[in-house]
Amino acid sequence: MPQSAPGPEGSTPWLSSPEHRAWLTQEAERQLDFFARSIRPEGGFVSLDYDGAPMAHQLQELHSTTRLVHSYALAHLAGYQGAETLIDQGMAYLWNAHRDRAYSGYVWGVQGQQVADGRKLAYGHVFVLLAGASAKCAGHPDADRLIDDASHVLDTHFWEDGPSLFADEWNRDWTPFSTYRGMNANMHGAEALLAAYEATGREVYLTRAGRILDFFMRHVARDEGWRIPEHYTADWQIDRAYDGDPMFRPKGTTPGHSVEWSRLLLQYWDLVGRPKDGTLDIARCVVTRALEDAWDTERGGLVYTLNFNGTPDIADRYWWPVTEAIGVLASLLKIAPTEEDEQWYRRLWQFANDHFVDHVHGGWFPEIDAEGRPMATQFAGKPDVYHALQATMFPLAQGVSRYAKAFEDAPLWPVGQGQ
Questions:
Q1: Which SS3 state, helix, strand or coil, does residue 104 take?
Q2: Residue (of 239, 285, 235) closest to 265 by Cα position
Q3: Contacts from 147-153 at CB under 8 Å and sequence distance 24+?
Q4: 398: which residues sit within 8 A by CB, 6+ positions away?
Q5: Is residue 60 helix, strand or coil?
Q6: What's the CA gap between 334 and 328, in Å, rounded?
Q7: What backbone torsions phi and psi does residue 96 show, to the nearest 5 degrees?
Q8: How far is residue 7 CA from its own chain's centroid?
Q9: Per the residue annotation, which of 140, 257, 359, 361 is the catalytic one?
Q10: Given this model, what pLDDT does residue 418 score?
Q11: Catalytic annotation on 359?
Q12: Are 333 and 342 in contact (CB under 8 A)?
């Protein structure tokens, strides 16, 4: 299949270009069509291979279930037909399979109806809150009980009032697992808290999101040359010696997370009335540093991790850092556009279109080799729709916060159009 261009040539800003907006809408629909095959007849979801065929491995991880709920809730609000089937499937599986009736909370991995990995991770629990918030915006009848239950667990076991941050991990029975503290769970915690505030109006969610963002963006990032270290000790000091799983807890800093932090900071700033507090400058500093450090000038794309001085450590190129960079640049282009923002936005979309978008089957390839071709080293099949769907949908929204309301007010697929 020939590759369509992600936007027109010329000087027209892509966010206001009818051609680009039509391309984004079509690409979002292709992703949703592809991942709609994830339904597992017995409950939960299956992982999908490159061609959309179900994969044999049946372990269902908490972040995968929750991200599908969140993604199809946004799609439902935007008018995508059939999204409610996936929302219902995911909400039922969260409550009946992932929820731990014996010890409370939500287990990380489930196989069928059996617990396969009983760890209790903040990273997973904040995604439960995100799923509940998005499902509430989509009008799901079970959303409130999920929000309330996830909030109770986060309050009881993860939130630390002193530093105003989330602790990371426990055993299934809530006995200590480690003293590790991490940036990633808190970043997605801020994401979930902002969504929960938008869905419920409860100020506690907005306040906590602000405290998390303040620590990482106004203190850590500023002190670290606008980079954000991944790993911390129990008293929230940077753990520069930490070297964990090279995929999920790599050492050093991760530029894909830096751009994601910046988008969330702008979302928070918008929700609190855009005060004159230097937020836009901070976001720009973090984004500029990440792009300058991580862009592979010879091959294109963003390298996965950096050393603390900004030199590449893991030079592999994955899809999700590109999607997150697109997301923050779309926010910057809506707030205070510059020519450099426009150039980066186009450069990233062109690279994604050329190397990550699957123009035959739909969905995105998660990783590419040195020649820019799809490979399967760290990921089996296509992991999820969450990152790439947001990259296509968020630029189409009117503002930089309250995306659910924006899609409800101006659906991408009005009744009688689309699927």
A1: coil
A2: 285
A3: 147/196, 147/199, 147/200, 149/99, 150/106, 150/125, 151/196, 153/104, 153/105, 153/106, 153/125
A4: 406, 409, 410
A5: strand
A6: 10
A7: -100, -15
A8: 24
A9: 257
A10: 47
A11: no
A12: yes
User: Between β-strands 109-111 and 181-182, what pairing exists: parallel, antiparallel or unpaired?
Assistant: unpaired
Q: What was the pLDDT predicted at 248?
A: 87
Taking alpha carbons only, the member of 400, 243, 396, 418 closest to residue 331 is 400
> In sequence order, which ranges of 214-338 are alpha helices (DSSP H)?
221-223, 255-271, 279-294, 319-335
Give dist(CA 189, CA 84) in Å, integer: 25
Under DSSP, is residue 411 helix (H, G, I), strand (E, B) or coil?
coil
C-beta separation of 279 from 287 below 8 A? no
The pLDDT assigned to 415 comes to 76
> How many angstroms separate the CA atoms of 43 and 271, rounded?
37
For 374, phi and psi rounded to 5 degrees? -55, 140
pTM: 0.97
The pLDDT score that the predictor gives to residue 112 is 86
The residues near 278 (Cβ < 8 Å, ≥ 6 apart) are: none
Alpha carbons within 13 angstroms on the beta-carbon side of residue 50 total: 12
Active-site annotation holds for 98? no
Burial of 219 (0-12, 13-18, 19+ CB in 10 A): exposed
List the alpha helices (DSSP H) in 78-121.
83-93
| CA triple 137-143-146, angle to 5 deg | 135
Name residue 374's beta-bridge partners: 368
Q: What is the pLDDT of residue 246?
A: 81
- Alpha-carbon gap, residue 215 to 325, rounded angstroms: 21
**385 touches 32 (CB < 8 A):** yes
Q: Measuring CA to CA, which residue among 262, 390, 239, 419 is closest to residue 332?
A: 262
Question: Residue 58 has what pLDDT?
Answer: 74
Strand bridging mode 109-111 / 59-61 = antiparallel
Helix (H) or strand (E) holding 210: helix 203-213
Closest Cα partner for 66 from 367, 385, 323?
385
Which pLDDT score, from 0 to 100, does residue 412 have? 98
Contacts with 203 (C-beta within 8 Å, 6 or more apart), sequence order: 197
Domains and CATH numbers, the chain: 14-409 (1.50.10.10)
Q: Are residues 290 and 258 in contact, defined by beta-carbon separation less than 8 angstroms?
A: yes
Residues of the chain with confidence (pLDDT) below 50 = 1-2, 416, 418
Measured distance CA(237)–CA(55) in Å, rounded? 41
Which two tokens mark 176?
């200590």
**What whole-number distance in Å separates Cα of residue 81 and Cα of residue 415?**
9
Tokens representing 401 are: 């916060």
